Amino acid sequence: MVHPSILSPVTRHAPLSAAILGGLRDVEEIFANQLRSDLPAVNELAHHVERYRGKMLRPTLLLLSGMAARGSEDGAVLNKAHRTAAAVAEMIHMATLVHDDVLDEADTRRRGRTVNSLRGNETAVMLGDWLISNAFHLCSLIGDPAVNVLFGETTNTLCEGELLQLSRREDPSLDELTYMQIVRRKTAALVSSCCSIGARLSGASELVQDSLGKYGEFTGCAFQIQDDVLDLAGEEALVGKTLGRDLEKGKTTLPVIMLLRQATPWERSEVLSIIHNRDGAALLERLRLSGALDEAKATAIQLVESAKSALESIPHGVAKDLLCELADEVVRREA
Ligand code: FPP
Ligand code: MG
């Protein structure tokens, strides 16, 4: 079921709305068909990860970029390849979430138990492997090797982002530049590929593919900053997943980088001791009082503005308008 908040702005444009909602239904079907196994034990796990499905941001962006690239308003430009690529993107995303929850030792995702908490790490690692394997099997059925290359480069980049992050755990001296490198790789790379692949499958020019790729990169970075803000300051009941994992796992994220950057040497040593003691409430109080939380949110908002500016070469129309509205939604969200 498609999360309403990500698509609510579409309702103003009925043909566009119908095209995306119809497209997403097909994506869900392609996804489910690909993951059907003759083994009940495997099917049960496949059903479990379907519960992880949320806003379907990545498939939505792929379909919408496919339309925006050609100034299409009714989805006539979308074909089976778009829908299959959108299912591939969602499957890659699911695989990364299943593995990410192992790394983060998270118990809850989308208000349900994580695979690692239900079945243990071995099953979760294997399930993530099965999902990524299925994603590339499905991708090869599109019959466009360039799409395989693009998704393959993206998963390489994504893993590199995670490895870089792991190498800098328990390191409060992490700077904003390195943080942005991590975010660009672990999150924005996939969002960016969704947008450029959507455009490519519509036969758009290199310029349009690149512009949409840039839009996706900026939007993806803003998305992850908001995710990191919510991990520190969100409400678990609203967000629907285990929060506070970044502090627990020694991940230094943008609000903390900004807090430490403006702190006096005395305040710095206090904050470091709060981090060392994993005192989430005290850290949140400092982040709020210092304005560091707002500063991080302001960075995300700036990135959204850059995302919209990247769309200059895209034909004007409702699909482009919606891309702008979705970028705004990414930083407004509380869940
Ligand atoms: C979310 O971070 C994590 C990612 C966006 C990427 C995770 C990628 C991997 C674990 C590599 C696995 C790769 C493959 C190809 C299977 P987060 O912990 O900040 O987000 P969260 O709050 O949603 O948990
Ligand atoms: Mg996580």
What keyword list fits this structure?
mainly alpha; Farnesyl Diphosphate Synthase; two-stranded antiparallel ribbon; binds magnesium ion
Summarize the structure.
The protein is built from 17 helices and two strands. It is mainly alpha-helical and 335 residues long.
Protein architecture, described:
74% of the residues lie in helices and 1% in strands. By secondary structure, the chain is mostly helical. The chain has a single domain (8-332), classed as Farnesyl Diphosphate Synthase (Orthogonal Bundle). Helix 4 (57-68) crosses helix 9 (176-201) and helix 9 packs across helix 10. Mean pLDDT is 94; it is low at 1-5. Residues 100, 104, 106, 245 line the site of magnesium ion.
Q: What is the domain total for the residues? A: 1
Shape: globular
Number of helices: 17
Helix content: over 70%
CATH class: Mainly Alpha
Output the structural class.
mainly alpha
Strand tally: 2
Q: Detail the poorly predicted runs.
A: 1-5
Strand order of the largest sheet: 1-2
* Bound ions, cofactors and other small molecules, one mention each: farnesyl diphosphate, magnesium ion
Strand and helix map with partners:
Blueprint lengths: L3 H4 L6 H21 L5 H11 L6 H12 L11 H25 L3 E2 L2 E2 L1 H5 L1 H20 L4 H23 L8 H26 L4 H28 L2 H4 L5 H4 L5 H9 L2 H12 L3 H11 L1 H18 L8 H15 L3
Antiparallel strand pairs: 1-2
Helix pairs in contact: 2-4, 2-5, 4-5, 4-9, 4-17, 5-7, 5-9, 8-9, 9-10, 10-16, 10-17, 13-16, 16-17
The chain binds farnesyl diphosphate and magnesium ion.
The site of magnesium ion (MG) has 4 residues, from helix 5.
